DNA sequence: GCAAGGTC
């Protein structure tokens, strides 16, 4: 029997489609990557009985990157990234082993049906799948077609079955347009980002961002926030005047009337109108009207609307809201949360979904009434052909979900119920009055039936006092007419919800990527989230955007994305050649890039105002080995040392504190050592600022401290302080932390393992001798007489931390003796490899090392 | 270390 491989874009879709096509009789198993499942069933295909294997990928299989050597920032001129630097496709998520998985499942299959999402990205993934799978599939005989594309616009029985009945072919042009987008985004984004980052980081010390990034989506996103900031800054309040009239409708009731002219900006004119009206005793009714109006029930919920409400009403950022929604989805509480669609599919079981909520403690009454009286037809929304709108899938309580998950679930459910409720109906009454020559109006709303606002009370029409019944020609006594002086007020910072709307309107990002872009501009320190989730640009964000405006405004305008997309669409429609469009667009941006580089002084002028040059930043910390003057420690990210005399900058490890290390110097370059320490585990090690940036030995890499230095005789080096191989990781060595006393510590120089030992010893030294059993370096430990825990009033002892019985009580490694990795029989120091470099030869596991004991041992360290 | 787009 022949086999048909079918591939969807994500595991959840593979399952739903397989269920539909197999009519529920299928067998499923997990794939080798643990993320994707394979659903098998039998049926007919091309007029013959076949076995179907339905599985999925997880989004893109491949991602685009530069060849490795072009990822070295110091060695590559960013301008090269526009054309010279070659790119390669890499697996998008190596952990998922997607290519291998597809090949295992695809081997020996005869046909393939591609069920990827029906958009350009999906078309592109089709070809990623084919690249992986075609080489291992059975070859077609006699030109028989073996590759098919299913096109569907919703995940419903009819749509899926129709798609299966009229299979087409994947569209190469659409896929190519995505290839072009990927390459453009990569080359343009990386070139600008690297150039800006290197240029400004080399000049300013207080930028407070380790990356000055640029991108066709994130930069316009930031642009929106700064645009609002500029409006606020340039806002000049204007004074205006308003007439306000009161009429008495009853003995002790009065109505406040709004002036039909609303406001005037000239005081004298306002005064003139006031003079003309204030002597009038009576207000005459000119007209009355009563109109029944409706406030529409909401459209079915899509991602972007959910994110807007989450931000504006629930105070949850888009990234957090998406994570919460995804959890609710994987736990079966809501439907798939990434969709653009606001229209329920024809066969959507609205009543069934509603019935699930009929006993919910919060909204049972509303739901039961809707079910009894009949639900309202949802409004016609937009069908993007991706997934149904976001709806609850089962009932859940506050106690069950808790916190933000509950609040989001509650909103989604109330929104769903609202979509099948009736519109809110109210009566709008208006009365217009004439006082002298001037017209005034007053209006009021009365709710006729609350409709959906019952389940969404925050949307309800506010209660207002009802208006008196009257008709044209009636008169009321004027209570008072007064003139109010007011001022126009500036707009406030952009809310996240407004930003999402702007991004959606200008086609910046997608439902899935909008939260990522917003998160990016926060993390890069371009904007901060203020109360009410308003986005306030930082100095850095403002300077960047103003700089682009000055040099080349197109770089920050929202049209930058849409202009490129227009070109890409030509590729997708087969109207333009992929190579030509790519080449042309790259050429345009390459010119822009060179112009930007040449004009960077324009942006720099703005930077100078807000930021301080490296030499003026930070505080003197340690001496430079070249000029022996103090270098300044710049704490702002990325933390580094700067020698203003030599004009050199030395990066330091991030996320920790840096101190001078006893004015000790590196024997290789005379730089003063600094001590890095991390808060959480109390780990610390010395490092030489020069060696950290310029590794002194061939077996060392950039970013290594003295605890990884292979200097044979320096007292701070791994060679002198290393004890033995790490108990957890493969390549690490346990190194004595010479600064850790009196709570002495030994820490791995690669992983997070830390062990505490010899508390209160006043000196611990690593001896040149090694343990005869395990080859670890012996430790020489001195205690004060009063505090010595050693037997028989001894104050000094030398032994192996792993094997010595005296040390067993004093080291948290006390169980280590019989199963320390040193027993594995690897070459030790005797073989001349240097202490701590001892490694187990590959493929020679030690039979004496029981696995469970190793994990028990590991527990002591972490 | 960089983009944006999928998705877990």
UniProtKB/TrEMBL annotation:
UniProt-listed Pfam families: Topoisom_bac (PF01131), Toprim (PF01751), Zn_ribbon_TOP3B (PF23546)
EC number(s) per entry: 5.6.2.1
Keyword DNA-binding set for record: yes
A GO term, aspect molecular function: RNA topoisomerase activity
Enzyme class: isomerase
Cellular compartments per GO CC: condensed chromosome; DNA topoisomerase III-beta-TDRD3 complex; nucleus
Listed SUPFAM superfamilies: Prokaryotic type I DNA topoisomerase (SSF56712)
Region described as Disordered: 821-854
Domain Toprim residues, every copy: 3-153
Role played: Releases the supercoiling and torsional tension of DNA introduced during the DNA replication and transcription by transiently cleaving and rejoining one strand of the DNA duplex. Introduces a single-strand break via transesterification at a target site in duplex DNA. The scissile phosphodiester is attacked by the catalytic tyrosine of the enzyme, resulting in the formation of a DNA-(5'-phosphotyrosyl)-enzyme intermediate and the expulsion of a 3'-OH DNA strand. The free DNA strand than undergoes passage around the unbroken strand thus removing DNA supercoils.
Protein name: DNA topoisomerase
Gene it is expressed from: TOP3B
């Amino acid at each position: 029997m022949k086999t048909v491989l079918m591939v969807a874009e994500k595991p959840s879709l593979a399952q739903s489609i397989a269920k539909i096509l197999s009519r529920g009789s299928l067998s499923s198993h997990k794939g080798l990557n643990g993320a994707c499942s394979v659903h098998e069933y039998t049926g007919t295909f091309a007029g013959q009985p076949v076995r179907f294997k339905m599985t999925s990928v997880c989004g893109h299989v491949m991602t685009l990157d530069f060849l490795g050597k072009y990822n070295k920032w110091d060695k590559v001129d960013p301008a090269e990234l526009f054309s010279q630097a070659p790119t390669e496709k890499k697996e998008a998520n190596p952990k998922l082993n997607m290519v291998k998985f597809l090949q295992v499942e695809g081997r020996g299959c005869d046909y393939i049906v591609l069920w990827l999402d029906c958009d350009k990205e999906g078309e592109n993934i089709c070809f990623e799948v084919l690249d992986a799978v075609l080489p291992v599939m059975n070859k077609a005989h006699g030109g028989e077609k073996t590759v098919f594309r299913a096109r569907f616009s919703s995940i419903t029985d009819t749509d899926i079955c129709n798609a299966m009945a009229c299979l087409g072919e994947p569209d190469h042009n659409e896929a190519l347009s995505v290839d072009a987008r990927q390459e453009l985004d990569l080359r343009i984004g990386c070139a600008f980002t690297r150039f800006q980052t290197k240029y400004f980081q080399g000049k300013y010390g207080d930028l407070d961002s380790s990356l000055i990034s640029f991108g066709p989506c994130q930069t316009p996103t930031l642009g929106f926030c700064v645009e609002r900031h500029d409006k606020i800054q340039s806002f000049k309040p204007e004074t205006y005047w308003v007439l306000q009239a009161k009429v008495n409708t009853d003995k002790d009731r009065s109505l406040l009337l709004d002036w039909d002219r609303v406001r005037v900006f000239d005081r004298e004119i306002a005064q003139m109108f006031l003079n003309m009206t204030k002597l009038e005793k009576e207000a005459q009714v000119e007209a009355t009207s009563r109109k029944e109006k409706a406030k529409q029930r909401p459209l079915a919920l899509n991602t972007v609307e959910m994110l807007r409400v989450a931000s504006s009403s629930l105070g949850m950022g888009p990234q957090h809201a998406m994570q919460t929604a995804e959890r609710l989805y994987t736990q079966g509480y809501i439907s798939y949360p990434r969709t653009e669609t606001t229209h329920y599919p024809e066969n959507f079981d609205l009543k069934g979904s509603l019935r699930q909520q009929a006993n919910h403690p919060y909204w049972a009454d509303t739901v039961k009434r809707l079910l009894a009286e009949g639900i309202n037809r949802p409004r016609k929304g937009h069908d993007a052909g991706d997934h149904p709108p976001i709806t609850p899938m089962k009932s859940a309580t506050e106690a069950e979900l808790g916190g933000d998950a509950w609040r989001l679930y509650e909103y989604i459910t109330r929104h769903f119920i609202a979509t099948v409720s009736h519109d809110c109906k109210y009566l709008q009454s208006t009365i217009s009055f004439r006082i002298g020559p001037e017209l005034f109006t007053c209006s009021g709303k009365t709710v006729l039936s609350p409709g959906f606002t019952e389940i969404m009370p925050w949307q309800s029409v506010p209660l207002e006092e009802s208006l008196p019944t009257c008709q044209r020609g009636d008169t009321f006594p004027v209570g008072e007419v007064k003139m109010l002086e007011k001022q126009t007020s500036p707009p406030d910072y952009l809310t996240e919800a407004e930003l999402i709307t702007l991004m959606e309107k200008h086609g910046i990002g997608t439902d899935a990527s909008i939260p990522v872009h917003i998160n990016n501009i926060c993390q890069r320190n371009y904007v901060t989230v203020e109360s009410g989730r308003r986005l306030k640009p930082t100095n850095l964000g403002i300077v960047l955007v103003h700089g682009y405006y000055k040099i080349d405004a197109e770089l920050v305008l929202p049209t930058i994305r849409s202009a490129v997309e227009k070109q890409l669409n030509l590729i997708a429609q087969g109207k333009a050649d992929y190579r030509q469009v790519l080449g042309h667009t790259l050429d345009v941006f390459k010119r822009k890039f060179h112009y930007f580089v040449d004009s960077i002084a324009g942006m720099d002028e703005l930077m100078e105002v807000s930021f301080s040059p490296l030499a003026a930043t930070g505080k003197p910390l340690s001496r430079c080995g070249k000029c022996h003057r103090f270098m300044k420690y710049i704490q702002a990210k990325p933390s580094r040392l700067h020698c203003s005399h030599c004009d050199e900058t030395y990066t330091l490890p991030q996320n920790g504190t840096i101190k001078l290390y006893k004015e000790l110097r590196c024997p290789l370059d005379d730089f003063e050592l600094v001590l890095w320490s991390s808060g959480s585990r109390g780990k610390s090690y010395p490092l030489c600022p020069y060696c950290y940036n310029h590794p002194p030995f061939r077996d060392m890499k950039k970013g290594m401290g003295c605890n990884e230095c292979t200097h044979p005789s320096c007292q701070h080096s791994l060679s002198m302080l290393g004890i033995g191989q790490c108990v957890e990781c493969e390549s690490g060595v346990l190194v004595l932390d010479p600064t850790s006393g009196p709570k002495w510590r030994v820490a791995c120089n690669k992983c997070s393992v830390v062990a505490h030992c010899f508390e209160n010893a006043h000196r611990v030294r690593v001896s040149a001798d090694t343990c005869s059993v395990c080859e670890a370096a012996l430790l020489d430990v001195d205690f004060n007489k009063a505090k010595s825990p050693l037997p028989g009033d001894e104050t000094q002892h030398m032994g192996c931390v792993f094997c010595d019985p005296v040390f067993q009580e004093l080291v948290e490694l006390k169980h280590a003796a019989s199963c320390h990795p040193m027993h594995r029989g690897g070459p030790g120091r005797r073989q001349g490899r240097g202490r701590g470099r001892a490694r187990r030869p590959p493929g020679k596991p030690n039979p004496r090392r029981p696995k469970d004991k190793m994990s028990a041992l590991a527990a002591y360290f972490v």
